[in-house]
User: Fold this.
Amino acid sequence: MKDYYSILGVARVATAADIKRAYRRLVQQYHPDINPAPGAQEFIREINEAYDVLGDEVKRREYDYRLSNPFASVEVEEPVRHRDPAYRRRSGYRQPKPTVDVQRELMIRSLPYLKALAWVGIFICCVLVVDYSMQPTDSVETVTAIRKKGLRNNQKLDMLTNTGRIYEIPFEYIPRIYVGQEIIFKESKGLAILITIYTEDEEVYIDNLATLYDNFSFIPVLLAVFSILGISAIGSVETRFNVGIISTFLLIFTLILML
Assistant:
């Protein structure tokens, strides 16, 4: 097989512009009207033949495949130079296009957005740290109604206060909570996240609450850890994508609990 790259004097990684420049330079040097040497006419034919292949993207891709796989059983017609540059002979073989991993491509495209959400997660964690470090506030409210709900073996209590607050507490507190009783709600100063519910005599003292500062306090911790990992860009694309997804879900859960 002829080495068209050697004929034009270019490397295999040459660009289309490099090939075109080399072709023009050789034509100006070996054209029979300019170069009367006996072998110039034969060489200019090979130059035209080489440029007809390497100057066409499809033919060049096909030629590179045959050059790299000399024993491949692929039959194609020898390239023929045509005077009409707009003409391109259809090739009997086209090198298959490289397969694209669509899933990986989507992961790569989503990484900047996941990283931005990780920064939001770090900001939320900082806000929670500041809020938790501040002196909590106590608000005294009066019980205006008590409603029982649930099944017999899993009953719960809805406690309504004079401010319109409705809070669900365990059923065992029914004997100790009554209408007209004053209940103290301890909350964080900035975000008003509930910390404790109690009475002044501590006959009622509930600190087992489904809030960010009690039962779900591990959520902000995990959010901080995964958010830091999300902005560190450590690991493979798949690892960073999975970390970003986890931190995003933790961020959503944290925002829900904050509201």
